[in-house]
Amino acid sequence: DTAVSQTPKYLVTQMGNDKSIKCEQNLGHDTMYWYKQDSKKFLKIMFSYNNKELIINETVPNRFSPKSPDKAHLNLHINSLELGDSAVYFCASSRIDNEQFFGPGTRLTVL
Amino acid sequence: AQSVTQPDIHITVSEGASLELRCNYSYGATPYLFWYVQSPGQGLQLLLKYFSGDTLVQGIKGFEAEFKRSQSSFNLRKPSVHWSDAAEYFCAVGGSGGGADGLTFGKGTHLIIQP
Predict the structure, then answer these.
(1) What's the gap in Å between the CA of B49 and the closest CA on chain A?
(2) I want to staple A102 with a disulfide (CB 3.0 to 4.6 A). Which of A39, B44, B51, B66 is the partner?
(3) B97 has a pLDDT exceeding 70
(4) Do A100 and B108 touch (CB under 8 A)?
(5) Is residue A52 predicted with pLDDT exceeding 60?
(6) Least confident residue range of A86-90, A94-98, B12-16, B24-28
(7) CA-to-CA distance for B18 and B36, rounded, in angstroms?
(8) How many whole angstroms separate alpha carbon B76 and alpha carbon B98?
(9) How far is the alpha carbon of A5 from chain B, nearest alpha carbon, in Å?
(10) Are A45 and B104 an interchain contact pair (Cβ–Cβ within 8 Å)?
(11) Nearest to A43 among B99, B100, B105 (CB)
(12) Residue B68: how many CA atoms within 13 Å on its side-chain side?
């Protein structure tokens, strides 16, 4: 009964490829997020979705596109992967109080 | 713009000693404050949170934090650390506006426990 799950856990790919990361939450939360954690462990919000509508689109390249088919799922699609995209990507969901429930993370390595 | 400062990148503490991790925040409205812990290769686990009320909040694993509005601080403490506390600790701030803003994180403090 995992609360927030992500797949895959590890993703190794070549520059220029397109890849997707999937996220699902079974907590009934209305808001879901994508965060990026860089090699120095710095966590920064990328996107926020509330009831399937994009609320925040921080200054991320438009090669990154979040898609939410329903309020329990938020997927992240990345086009034309670059070396600098290598990071750990965390999905999260929250209640109205903003407490974030994080998934286990997806470690993306671009070669 | 909101921000969080964790001034200590690394802290080394002997097992059994007390611990205090510092966090200062900048936020334009009433802040919601959080401490998360991340063990190596793991996700983030909530230690404790402050929304309102009593400024001393208790969390899991024996941690507590004190909100001091006048100092814009939310320091994390533990009276006696265990080797299993070695991890990365993140302070974060967010608002209450429907919860859709997400959190702004500090850069983390890496805690090392000496035997």
Answers:
(1) 8
(2) B44
(3) no
(4) no
(5) yes
(6) A94-98
(7) 19
(8) 26
(9) 11
(10) yes
(11) B105
(12) 11
